[in-house]
Amino acid sequence: MTFTLAIVGRPNVGKSTLFNRLVGKKLALVDDQPGVTRDLREGAARLGDLRFVVIDSAGLEMAEDDSLQGRMRRLTERAVDEADICLFVIDARVGVTAADEYFAEILRRRAKHVIVAANKAEGRAGESGAMEAYGLGLGEPLRISAEHGEGMDDLYRALVPLS
Ligand code: GDP
Ligand code: MG
User: Fold this and answer.
1) Strand order in 4-8's β-sheet?
2) Which residues form the EngA-type G domain (predicted)?
3) Does 31 or 52 have the greater pLDDT score?
4) Which of 23-32, 52-61, 142-151 has the highest mean pLDDT?
5) Atom 18 of ligand 1, nearest CA residue
């Protein structure tokens, strides 16, 4: 059995870095079609013995004529609706922002399952930001580093009971 995981969160928290790590660079490149606007990028992911579909809300970084906030909301709602599990990423070095609170509210209303990940937490970085993420009320945050591959074992353990 497989499942769909949507990576959601405000721009620049490391969603695409995590997407690339989960699908592998080769697949991500194949999936990237220059000149084609694909708001939700989808890939085949593997983590340990888990195989699943992962969605990256790639369109958030593209300049469009309507407001970023409106785009963020619509894209997130689409990703959430398509997904069995949402991985809500925050930047552990920045802590919880107003935009994060806004996403948390959407996820509380719509998501079937939410895992919170405080990213950019390699080494001992971002400990207080990760603590702040508890306050989102979406469960115990994982401390991960998408760039350095840290915390992937914790992500695996969080996904297994939901898969
Ligand atoms: P997105 O906008 O949420 O998709 O974020 P990106 O994946 O494009 O990453 C935004 C920036 O954060 C880039 O400069 C990444 O290199 C950086 N980044 C992503 N993950 C990590 C991480 O685990 N640690 C650190 N220090 N930087 C990261
Ligand atoms: Mg991105």
Assistant:
1) 41-47, 50-56, 4-8, 85-91, 114-119, 142-143
2) 3-163
3) 52
4) 142-151
5) 14
Check the annotation: does 119 bind a ligand.
yes
Q: Which numbered atom of ligand 1 lies nearest the CA of 148? A: 23
What CA–CA distance (Å, rounded) separates 130 from 136?
11
For the question of an ipTM over 0.85, the answer is: yes
Instruction: Locate 147 and state its tokens.
Output: 């760039």
Q: Residue 121, annotated ligand binder?
A: yes
Ligand 1 atom at minimal distance to the Cα of residue 146 = 23
Q: Which residues line ligand 1 (CB under 6 A)?
A: 11-17, 61, 119-120, 122, 145-148
CB burial of 3-20 (b: ≥16 within 10 Å; e: otherwise) equals bbbbbbbbeebbbbbbbb
What tens digit of pLDDT does each residue of 67-84 get?
777 777 788 888 899 999
